[in-house]
Amino acid sequence: MPNNTGLKIISVVMAVLLWFYVINTGDANPRNSIVNANLKYINLEEGLTIIMPDSVAVKLWGSADTSAEIIAYVDLKGLAMGSHQLPVKVEPVPGAIFTSVEPDVVTVEIKEEQERSISIEHVIIRNPNAGHDLLDILKSPDECIIKGEESLVKLVNSVICEVDLAGLTGMKTINVPLKAIDAKGNPIDKGLRLVPDNINLYLVINQNMLAKEVKVNPVIIGSPMEGYQLVNDKIIPELVNILVPALIADNVNEVKTKPIDITGRDKAFSQEVELVVPEGIHIYPDKVIINISINSTESEKELEE
What we know:
5-stranded mixed β-sheet, RNA Polymerase Alpha Subunit, Chain A, domain 2, about 10% helix, single chain
């Protein structure tokens, strides 16, 4: 009968370790979890690309946090082109006593990497806010290099960047990721590298503006000297040109001057006065001349007689 004393000792030690683990973690019911993990690779030689399974099933035993990222990978160090059977390795998972992976060996095919250059297209997924227009868009760079296995590189119909313009105005710089798209409009997510994989977009977004001519309305405050009265006022020019957002153009039919104080005045005068410029509106000219006529009330009575 074979001697299995060593195996019994190992079993006892493992049971004791498990007991201590359960006591220390406070989990009286260690559990099994099976998690699908993306299969990654390391140490791929420059100029080569790889075809292999996208994911593996990792079995965790213990009280591991299954929400944490599980890193499963194959090591390609020193491997040349061809087909290889490689073991799948799993990084230690916090809280897990044991881990196993299925399959634990995968077929990896290493091929020469192909590449081609392609122009980058932009796709607007949301337009600017109402009353705004995209005047210009500049991509930097405007081309990228697709790298990968030959059949996948040939599958690429376009490379796009999606642009969300909602809420943007003025001159903006945004950074956006690139996507490789096939002829049916589907993204190609696996097996390709895009160089670069992000680009900068320089945008110019302006409000729709409407030019119109509006009346100048003088704002006069105060009272002339006792015994005198304001006879009339004249604005030069009476009309000015404005650029106004198209959305509110129908509601803007005049502009006002800054206050003109006639307190204590007893004779006519002329004054240059600035116009009040509402936010978002441009006015030309932005100053006008106002001629104020003030007469004695006695003179007015004499004229009436």
